[in-house]
Design a protein that fits this description.
The structure is a single chain. The protein is 51% helix and 17% strand. By secondary structure, the protein is an alpha+beta fold. The protein has 2 domains: 7-103; 153-369, no CATH class. The strands form 2 sheets. Strands 4-3-2-1-7-6-5 form a 7-stranded antiparallel sheet. Strands 8-9-11-10 form a 4-stranded mixed sheet, sandwiched between helices. A hairpin with a 2-residue loop joins strand 3 (32-39) and strand 4 (42-47). Helix 3 crosses helix 4, helix 4 (139-148) crosses helix 9 (248-257) and helix 9 packs across helix 10. It is globular, with a radius of gyration of 22 Å. The two termini are 41 Å apart.
Length: 372
């Protein structure tokens, strides 16, 4: 084991580690950060570059997030608040003073929101009967109100955590025709968005795709292979974009984990139990029939606005409806239930828009051939 003077604790997220992170220890050595974890009987160690990325994180932004790229993805070390943060700053080289100062200012901004949010929660706590009545009678309105209080910048950080977990658990295809195609389609569907979209293709033969809060859209290679045209893929991407734009992931998170999940996102509590429950919940999110109907309609609207033939969306839904009758339905159906009725509704909506359309300038045979 390493010696302990001038060390500081935290939680580490890295490719190959548990998706919810592992307790870790950091130490400055000759101006470079070294982080290690005890993984069973073995000890694993990482050496940071001279200029890692620093940002505020954790409860009330009192934690410090230190990140840098490693083989297989991104490493993120959350330095604990209090004495650990003090020890980190004491040994930190002067070259990191500026980004560390930016993180401190961000922490002060989150602290102000923290005080406001908890004052609001305290007020609600004084009226438990009213709160219960509101949740029972107007539960949807309460959830929507809570989601509206969360800035898009905080929502993006939640998406970053899902992105880090995806990179740790799956092999991400970082470049090539398929990645370029998904990004090209996605950008046509999201003009003027408030999100900073991240478009991912993962090497997984399941017929699946999902969207995380803050503009993370993940498309499985198996889904792309199952499409016959880029317009069919665009239909799936448009549906996932609609979930992101309508903030269905955040709504589902608050509904499943309660208002404390909304408070955690608003305040930047990206560690501990909330992190574990939130990321797991988002990766396994099952949307309601109402949310799916909304995403279908909004996705189709975006296809029409982008002059992409929405018939592709209806055709892909036909495929899902047909495959749902099989012994092993596609993985996409575990979170996006399909039905022949839904496919019929989409085709009727698509039929209301005669075009003209602008074909997607993509060599789809090349895109599919490029996939593992």
């Amino acid at each position: 084991m390493h010696s302990t003077p001038n060390t500081f604790g935290g939680r580490l997220f890295a490719p190959g580690l548990d998706g919810v992170g592992m307790p870790a220890t950091g130490q400055w050595r000759q101006g470079r950060l070294v982080v290690w974890v005890q993984d069973g009987a073995a000890e694993r160690e990482w050496l940071a570059p001279e200029h890692p990325t620093l940002s505020a994180g954790g409860f009330n932004a009192a934690q410090l997030s230190v990140g840098w790229p490693v083989d297989g993805g991104q490493l993120q070390f959350f330095v604990d608040a209090g004495a650990a943060r003090t020890a980190f700053a004491a040994g930190m080289p002067a070259s990191l003073a500026q980004p560390h100062g930016v993180a401190q200012r961000a922490a002060r901004g989150v602290e102000r929101r923290f005080k406001f949010w908890w004052a609001a929660l305290a007020a609600v706590a004084l009226l438990p009967v009213l709160a219960v009545a509101l949740l029972v009678l107007r539960g949807g309105d309460v959830v929507n109100w809570a989601v509206q209080q969360i800035p898009h910048a905080q929502e993006a950080k939640l998406g970053d955590l899902v992105l880090a977990q995806t990179r740790a658990q799956m092999r991400v295809i970082d470049s090539g025709p398929a990645v370029d195609a998904v990004k090209h389609i996605g950008e046509r569907l999201t003009p003027g968005t408030l999100h900073r979209y991240r478009w991912l293709v993962v090497d997984n033969q399941e017929m699946n795709a999902f969207a995380a809060p803050g503009g993370v859209v993940v498309v499985y290679s198996g889904l792309l292979k199952s499409t016959d045209t880029p317009e069919e893929a665009a239909g799936v991407i448009a549906h996932e974009v609609a979930h992101a734009e309508l903030r269905h992931g955040l709504q589902g998170l608050v509904k499943s984990l309660g208002l404390r999940a909304g408070a955690a996102v608003l305040l930047g509590d990206w560690s501990g139990a909330v992190l574990s429950e939130a990321t797991t919940s988002l990766l396994e999110m099952q949307f309601s029939r109402e949310a799916e109907t909304q995403a279908d309609a909004e996705g189709l609207r975006r296809l029409v606005a982008a002059k992409i033939n929405p018939e592709g969306m209806a055709r892909f839904m036909d495929k899902l409806a047909a495959k749902s009758q099989g012994a092993t339905p596609p993985a996409l159906l575990s979170t996006h239930p399909a039905s022949a009725e839904r496919a019929t509704q989409l085709r009727a909506l698509a039929g209301q828009h005669p075009g003209p359309w602008e074909p997607l300038a993509l060599d789809w045979a090349t895109v599919k051939a490029s996939l593992p």
